[in-house]
Amino acid sequence: MILVTGGAGFIGSNFVLDWLASSDEPVINLDKLTYAGNPDNFASLANDPRHHFVHGDICDRELVAGLLKQYQPRAIVHFAAESHVDRSIHGPADFIRTNIDGTFSLLEAARAYFETLSDTLRAQFRFLHVSTDEVFGSLGPDDAPFTETTPYAPNSPYSASKAASDQLVRAWFHTYGLPVVTGNCSNNYGPLQFPEKLIPLIIANALAGKPLPVYGDGQQVRDWLYVGDHCAALRRVLADGRLGETYNIGGWNEKANLDVVHTLCDLLDELAPATQSYRQQIKFVTDRPGHDRRYAIDARKIERELGWKPAETFETGMRKTVQWTLANQDWVRKVQSGEYLQWIDRQYGQQKEVNA
């Protein structure tokens, strides 16, 4: 089986669902269930014996060590992270704790576990670290896309904390021989994304008749990657990625934020028409501090070495995302209201009362 950290978050839960849809190999799903960790994401697995959910913190080394000893996973897939740039600007401490301290703690637990394995099991074990293209900083309009050898130049507390975690993973490979691989992905989108990120926020606000906020002039460019494609890439990296290597994972879809918003408005005009075009709700707002102008991923290495390339175009992925959101308004409502957070009390409240 495998251990997935952060498996109740957006990408992590998509990975768990995707993994169990294509494999019978069980998953231990470890998640702290902070605001973005949503148990409703894997509600369909409630009666699936292959899915073992554990409510816990990657910084709890004793807990992680116990899970490794109990379940003996052949791999750790590390998603757990604080991941929103705006939140990192207003509260960087959580990002330092989870992304740096948490990764360090997980690496140490993995190293101790790895050293107990037989030679055969050591040869099979992998630590897959899931990171971001934001560690590379910002590109000019005519600069070549990021490659795996682009120097790190993070510009926000979030990207700096992820850059630090990447370097820790690299060091544990070179110093201790821990068999690691890393994926640096571009902007993910798709089902189950928490609605503080651009695409789900725009869809939710549009349907509610609220303004559609666009930072600055809306010309910040990102490479957009459908989350299902990212999950497929990570499976390939886990299976056959070269130890100690990093793989850039991108969608080959550079789009300005304003173009993304226009695309969403046009899809909603088609699929959920209102009395006027949703474009009328667009509102430009003050840009955030240190807002990187452009990201772009060169994903040729993973295609060349592992045979992966995205299956979705920007148009097909966006249509799937809008269609999923329209079909899952109850999920959206629970997230917006915070009702999903009550899961912890429902799940653990009686146990806490008994233990008290």
Report on this model:
This protein is of the alpha/beta class. It has one domain (2-328): Rossmann fold (3-Layer(aba) Sandwich), CATH 3.40.50.720. It contains 13 helices and twelve strands. It has helices at residues 10-22, 61-71, 85-90, 92-114, 119-124, 157-176, 198-208, 227-240, 257-271, 300-306, 314-327, 329-337, 342-355; strands at 2-5, 27-31, 51-55, 75-78, 126-132, 180-185, 187-189, 212-215, 221-226, 246-249, 254-256, 282-285. The strands form three sheets. The protein has a seven-stranded parallel sheet with strand order 3-2-1-4-5-6-10, sandwiched between helices. α1 (10-22) packs across α8, α2 (61-71) runs parallel beside α4 (92-114) and α7 (198-208) packs across α9 (257-271). The radius of gyration is 20 Å and the shape is globular.
Give the helix/strand class: alpha/beta
Q: Tell me the Rg in angstroms.
A: 20 Å
Low-confidence residue ranges: 350-356
SSE ordering: EHEEHEHHHEHEEHEEHEEHEHHHH
Q: Approximately how much beta-strand content do the residues carry?
A: 15-25%
Outline the biggest β-sheet. 7 strands, parallel
Instruction: Give the CATH H-level superfamily.
Output: NAD(P)-binding Rossmann-like Domain
Mean pLDDT: 93
Under CATH at level 1, the class stands as: Alpha Beta
Major β-sheet strand ordering: 3-2-1-4-5-6-10
- In the CATH scheme, what's the topology name? Rossmann fold
Tally of individual helices: 13
Any guess at the CATH architecture?
Answer: 3-Layer(aba) Sandwich
